[in-house]
Specification:
This protein has 289 residues and is α/β, with parallel strands linked by helices. The protein has seven helices and twelve strands. The termini are close together.
Length: 289
């Protein structure tokens, strides 16, 4: 990929989610998007084309890069307010979500093989086993109908919402370390299945080894949904390939977490995509080539 070019306002595309096409059902929310920047091929339409950007182009805009059998791609998806808060006043990210952000959230899940999430975030946000909305199900052709959820926990404790069976949903894996102890690891195996617990690392979860273990299972397209400590750890070990970030057009003030937490780690990223929708900015940033 090459760095993108900011488009002239005269050729901004409008993405109308009130229309359908052959990729998704006609179930769009009533909101529009404007494409501000992109550096990839978004199908038959070019930036100078006045036609509306449809759902197929949106899927192309967020597509994972081609991967060999040995490769994996770790993408993180977060939302933040204008003043940098990763949650609203209630301590949940859902309270600052926007319509376009929720749609892209569902799209990113449909594109992924595995959703990576910290156990604490899974508990606070009430995670359940992952499902894909019908309107994006065509993107999973040739793969399981729903992505796997991989929960990261040093203690090996399976969040209640992920331990419960859920009809027509993805599997759950536990990524833990030896520090969890034999009893906790056995309990996790009992809840999820013996082959669904991956032990990587001694005192903390070795994320490099864990991501490699996921790739060996064919789970190469990784979507990290948080929380901030897991995001910080991925950044610190150099295992983050891409950040998808929505900037919500609100200020919350007060003391709130950012999208990263933990030890300092300075990593430069390159913008690849920017979309505006009702004041929200949605974008993709990747590690330099």
């Amino acid at each position: 990929m090459t760095p993108g070019t900011l488009l002239d306002s005269k050729v901004l595309h409008r993405i109308d989610f009130r229309r359908g096409d052959n990729l998704v059902e006609n179930q769009w929310k009533d909101f529009d998007m404007r494409l501000l920047l992109h550096d990839d091929n978004l199908g038959p339409r070019s930036p100078g084309d006045s036609a509306e950007m449809d759902s197929e182009m949106l899927a192309l805009a967020y597509a994972y890069p081609p991967l060999s059998a040995e490769q994996s791609w770790v993408r993180a998806n977060f939302i933040s307010t204008l003043d940098g808060a990763a949650t609203g006043d209630d301590g949940h990210s859902g309270s600052i979500n926007t319509g376009a952000d929720r749609e892209v959230f569902q799209l990113l899940r449909a594109l992924s093989d595995v959703v990576l999430v910290g156990a604490g975030t899974a508990r606070v946000e009430g995670y359940k086993r992952a499902t894909v909305k019908n309107r994006w199900s065509a993107l999973r052709k040739g793969r399981p109908a729903h992505p796997t959820t991989a929960v990261v926990s040093r203690s090996g404790g399976v969040p209640a919402g992920l331990s419960k069976a859920r009809q027509d949903s993805g599997e759950v894996l536990m990524l833990t370390c030896h520090r969890a102890g034999a009893e906790a690891i056995d309990l996790a195996r009992g809840a999820l299945g013996r082959g669904h617990v991956i032990v990587a690392g001694e005192d903390t979860v070795d994320l490099m080894a864990a991501v490699d273990a996921l790739a060996m299972r064919g789970l190469q397209r990784v979507l990290c949904e948080g929380g901030p400590h897991l995001m910080g750890d991925l950044t610190a070990v150099g295992r983050l390939d891409e950040l998808c970030l929505t900037i919500a057009p609100i200020l919350v003030g007060g003391q709130h977490p950012r999208i990263t937490a933990g030890a300092s780690a300075a990593v430069g990223l390159v913008p690849r995509l920017l979309i505006e929708s009702q004041g929200s900015i949605l974008g993709r940033w990747t590690a330099p080539d």
